[in-house]
Write a structure and sequence with these properties.
Helices cover 56% and strands 0% of the residues. It is mostly helical. The chain is globular and about 45 Å long. It has one domain. Helix 1 runs antiparallel to helix 2, helix 2 packs across helix 3 and helix 3 packs across helix 5.
Length: 96
Amino acid sequence: MTEKLFDFEPAQTLDSDEAVEVFLTEALETGDAKFIASALGVVARAKGMTKIAKEAGLAREHLYKALSENGNPTLETTLAVLRAIGLELTAKPNAG
């Protein structure tokens, strides 16, 4: 039997725009779509899921599902969430 030792909510650590930027940059660098979606969910919770959903023009329930560990948001949803949190998607040359 596994016991929970403590509850940790990573959204509580994202208390500045700089922290959000670093967090999402590191998530994007993994190249893992599910991890990136989950990281966007963490940021949305940190900023307020209801507020982000409203600004993105999406249902809050849809965001919770799309930005969960098993979520698979569309590019449209991803871009809307990024805009709502004040970020944009950009491209840069591959390091390798």
